[in-house]
From TrEMBL:
<protein>
    <submittedName>
        <fullName>Cytochrome P450</fullName>
    </submittedName>
</protein>
Length: 557
């Protein structure tokens, strides 16, 4: 972990030479690996794709920048469902939106043939610790099996009252802010705090007090807000992470500090904040646990949150079943990272769309009000929330057209062939199955499938919730989309799909049912642009690429 780095940094010429040699060895190992994979990947050269624009970075600078969404749409439209991209030093990458190929990639061998790439796992380990987002192979399967029950429908049902309580806090804050009439509110900030509190309270029985009426921002909240834009901007450095896997922590920190990259330095400081707070929460909970069952069950979540249950089970677990403390703190950081910006981005996008579609907003408000009348004005339970057809359609349509995460990355661990739904024209003729050499990096094109006009029809790019109120076109069922949320790739599919997908939908529904009932939303005069990153986030046109915000006019009803 980053805070262990830089312990006892020796300072001598020898160390400087050591650092220089280590950096050289990283670069040499990378060049060697890429040269070897280029030879292995010769068969991929015939796959259609955009011409490379740089000998060093190929198409990466077009593919991974904050305004890259247009480029993604362009290559999907121009080159189709299987695209070859040029990566660093000519390495081939595949961008896939063919659903038959995706089914094989995501499900084949339960993740044994295609797993998350080493550079993602290794850099996540360094930044957020050994949680689910950092583990591969059997370690991942073991952690996933242990955590899965907490994300079941049964557990989600029990979380509904807690979600209402947290969202009520936001209600109070906004009511106070708008006491003098409609106002422009920077809503993304408040939705980020809401998502943080929801995952902190439901996932670890902890509060950062981010929704206090004083409006003070917790430093953790600030760190989380900067996390996604910052990590998205250091993709090239993250790719070097496996080469530095064996470096002692102090050398890694020294190397990071010496590199002239302000974004890397920002990332290191964010990672320190996340780790510091995860350890602090863990220590506070350990003290409660040591104080006995009574104290432990007096937490916000009555001891039923994921981390409390894990810690309690861990106390009695023996030998290899026992999780090291670092894996528990790593899991906390993982949920906070995985569950905050994704959810706040989805809720923000929905509210902005409703602001631009007042008739859809009114229709949704009416459905929510009717549901409250039927429930005798008491908080809506899980089934009542699930029973609102238009709310469900609004959430699904937003997650379809605007998935907060656009790509899921995989690497091929062994030479393999995957079948295609339809033949792909290559420079060597049509192919009906795709040979993927070992070591090839792939990007699952989530948006490409969700907005494929041959699956969804000619209006695939349009936001039209009504499409989910009528039977979907047959082409949707025929496509057999392998997403964990039916017919959508938004939460990916297979053994590495989003573990929080049911919680995310619950959060969206509870939040919208409160906010749309109590407030009316209309667009601000400021133009909102959505910036591509690991998670797509809103900003005001013309502002700093790392800053995220979404001003919107809010009026009390
Ligand atoms: C709208 C909200 C969300 C979206 C769009 C989203 C999307 C995704 C996607 C695309 C993946 C990658 C899957 C892959 O590589 O195949 C993922 C993984 C993950 N998500 Fe979410 N997510 C959301 C909310 C959440 C929430 C609320 C949590 C809370 C716990 C969460 C926790 C995770 C974790 C832990 C992983 C890693 C799973 C693994 O590797 O086994 N996500 N998510």
């Amino acid at each position: 972990m980053l805070t262990d780095i830089l312990r006892a940094p020796p300072s001598s010429t020898l160390v400087w030479r050591g650092v220089a040699l280590s950096v050289l060895s990283v670069v040499a190992a990378l060049v060697f690996r890429i040269a070897r994979s280029r030879i292995r990947q010769a068969s991929l050269w015939k796959i259609p794709g955009p011409p490379s624009v740089s000998l060093i970075t190929g198409n990466f600078s077009q593919m991974f920048n904050s305004s890259a969404s247009k480029y993604h749409a362009h290559i999907t439209r121009t080159y189709g469902r299987v695209i070859r991209l040029t990566g660093l030093l000519g390495e081939s990458h595949l961008v896939i939106s063919d659903t038959k190929a995706l089914t094989n990639i995501l499900l084949q061998g339960q993740g044994a043939v295609f797993d998350t790439p080493e550079w993602v796992l290794e850099s996540n380990t360094r930044i957020i610790g050994p949680g689910l987002l950092s583990q591969g192979g059997v370690h991942h399967r073991r952690q996933r099996k242990m955590l899965q029950p907490f994300f079941s429908t049964k557990h989600m049902r029990s979380l509904v009252p807690l979600c209402h309580r947290v969202i009520h806090q936001l209600d109070v804050v906004l009511q106070q802010k708008l006491a003098d009439g409609p106002k422009e509110v920077e809503l993304l900030d408040w939705l980020g705090r809401l998502a943080l509190e929801l995952i902190a309270q439901a996932g670890m029985g902890y509060t950062f007090n981010s929704l206090s009426p004083s409006g003070e921002e917790h430093e953790f909240d600030t760190a989380l807000k900067e996390y996604m834009p910052t990590i998205s901007s250091i993709i090239f450095l993250r790719r070097l992470a496996p080469q530095a896997a064996s470096w002692p922590p102090w050398l890694l920190r020294l190397g990071g500090t010496l590199l002239p990259s302000p974004m890397l330095h920002r990332m290191m400081s964010i990672a320190d904040t996340i780790e510091r707070h995860s350890v602090q929460i863990f220590q506070e909970k350990s003290a409660l646990l040591a104080g006995g069952d009574d104290e432990f069950t007096h937490q916000l979540s009555e001891g039923k949150d994921i981390i409390s249950v894990l810690m309690r089970a861990n106390m009695t677990a023996s030998g290899e079943d026992r999780l090291p403390d670092s894996e528990i703190t790593g899991q906390m950081a993982t949920f906070l990272i995985g569950g905050t910006d994704t959810t706040s981005s989805a809720i923000a996008r929905t509210l902005l769309l409703l602001a631009h579609h007042p008739e859809a907003q009114e229709r949704l408000r009416k459905e929510i009000n009717d549901a409250y009348v039927s429930s005798g004005d008491s908080e809506l339970d899980y089934d009542e929330l699930a029973g609102m057809a238009y709310l469900d359609a609004v959430c699904r349509e937003t997650l379809r057209v605007y998935p907060p995460v656009n790509f899921a990355a995989r690497v091929c661990r062994a030479d393999t062939s995957v079948p295609l739904s339809e033949p792909v024209q290559t420079s060597g003729g049509a192919i009906s199955s795709l040979f993927i050499p070992q070591g090839t990096n792939l990007l699952m094109n989530i948006g490409g499938v969700n907005r494929d006009p041959r699956i969804w029809g000619t209006d695939a790019e349009e936001w039209r919730p009504e499409r989910f109120l009528a039977p979907l076109p047959e082409s949707v069922a025929e496509a057999r989309i392998p997403g964990v949320l039916s017919n959508l790739m938004t939460f990916s599919g297979g053994p590495r799909s989003c573990i929080g997908f049911q919680f995310a939908q619950l959060e969206m529904k509870v939040a919208l049912s409160h906010l749309v009932r109590a407030f009316r939303f209309s667009p601000s005069t400021k133009e909102i642009v959505w910036r591509y990153g690991v998670v797509t986030t809103p900003s005001v046109e013309g502002t700093d690429a790392v800053g995220t915000e979404m001003p919107i006019i809010v009026e009390r009803i």
